[in-house]
Design goal:
Helix content is about 75%, strand content about 0%. The chain has 6 helices and no strands.
């Protein structure tokens, strides 16, 4: 690789690392929000998992700790289990999971 190519490869790697760290932090924030919603609903992780039809509560724990995400096809079920309007629930999670798309859909004026 030439010097310019090496520099751009290193720059791209650094940009990717920053984006990965930002995504990790946003997942943690989403998890904290979900935990707050669960507590407001008066549910334990085990109780929420049961309402979601999950065999184990560990998935709920992983999501709340930022190690997983609520799958988009499951957002409505999670929202109803937590007593949150589904559109509001999805909009909030989208702000964490894909902030750029959230901005385009809900913040940018035509």
């Amino acid at each position: 690789l030439g010097e310019d190519q090496e520099g751009s490869a290193v720059g791209a790697h650094m940009q990717f690392a920053r984006a990965a760290q930002e995504a990790k932090e946003l997942r943690k924030q989403a998890g904290a929000w979900l935990k707050e919603m669960r507590k407001r609903a008066g549910l334990s992780q085990v109780e929420l998992a049961a309402r979601l039809g999950l065999k184990y509560y560990t998935f709920v724990s992983q999501v709340e700790n930022g190690f997983g995400r609520v799958p988009s096809e499951s957002m409505e079920v999670w929202a109803r289990a937590l007593g949150v309007p589904p559109a509001e629930f999805a909009r909030q999670l989208l702000s964490y999971y894909d902030p750029h798309l959230h901005r385009l859909l809900f913040e940018v004026k035509p």
